[in-house]
Amino acid sequence: MSHYSPLSCLARSLPHHPPLFPGRPPLVTFLIALWAGLPHFLLCGHRLTRPQRSAIILKIRSLQLRAKAREYSGGAIGLRVSILASGSSGNITLLETERTRLLVDAGLGKRETLARLAAVEKTVERLDGILITHEHTDHCNGLPQMLGLWKAPLYVTEPTLDAMQCILPETFGKRLRGVETIHAGQHFAVGDIDVHAFAIPHDAADPIAFTFRTNGAKLAIVTDLGYMPALAKVHLRGADCLVLESNHDLDMLKVGPYPWVVKQRILSRTGHLSNHAVSEYLSDPDGFDAMARYLVLAHLSEENNNPFTAEISAQEALSRRPAECAFRGELLVASQHVPLQPLEL
Q: Do both 18 and 113 map to the same domain?
C-alpha cells in the first residue's frame, strides 16, 4: 500500500492540463493550479501540522522569489542582499558578491536559517565572515550554531563580545575560530566588500550599524536605534539599498500590552525608531537623499506595528518630498517570518 506525505498528496492533486491562460507567468499558472487542487487535497485525509503548512508557504514563496530574480538575471553579481528575517524574534541578512559571502547578525537557529536559505534557493558552502551589530538575543542567539556550521571569522566590537560571552552558552566560546575586533568609525575589508561600522544610540554595550561598498554599489543596514543622529544620516547618503528600522506605531505602542517600563525603554533615545520618526527622516530632503533603488522598512514589532501601517506611513512621508528630489525607488517591508526577495545591486 502506498503512503503519501501531505506535500506529495498536494502535488498529486494539482491539475495536469495545459495552461488555461497562455502567456501567463509560470508562477500565476502554478497558483491557479494550486487553488484548483486544494479541495481534493483537503479531502485526502491529511491534517496539516504547522511545520507542513510552513513548508508549503515557503515553497510558494520560493517560486515568487525565483520569478522576481529572473528580472535581474543575465549578469555577474554586484552585491546581492537577502534579508532572511527581520524583527524582534530574530534578524539575519546574507550578503553576496562573486567572491565573498557575509552574514549580518545571527538571530535564528541552524534549522530555521537553513530553511530561509532554501526559500531563496541558496546553498551556502562557506562564509567569509559573520558581523554582529550588538548582543541582544534577536541578533546573536543563533551565533554558536552558525559558527559551528560555517566556522567563519567573527567581526564584533570588544564590549559586544564580552556581553555575548555572558549570555550565550559555553558552545559559543568553544566554536570561536577567529575574532576580528572592530570598533565604531572603523573601515575594514572582508574579501571584496568594504565595510564601515558606525555608532548608533541603543541600549546595548556597544551598538553599531554598517554600510557596505563593493562593485560600485552601497548598502546601509541600520536598525535598533532610538533616534536618527545627524552623523548616521550622513553615513546613509548615497546608499543604493537602505535597510532602515521602522519598529513601532506610537499609538499602537501606547495602548498595547507591554508593561509601561518596556514602553518607556522603546520610546527612549536608546530604544527603537517609530514609524513617525522614520517618516520625518524620509520626508526631509536634507536628511534622506532618496537615491536608493530599494528602501526596506525593517525590524517591525509584531505587537506594536504591522506592515501595512509602516508602509502607509513611509509612503505618506515620501509623497511630501519636493518633486525635484522625489523618491523613485522601490519601497519594501522586511518580514519576521518570510525572507524578502533577494535584491540585486
A: no
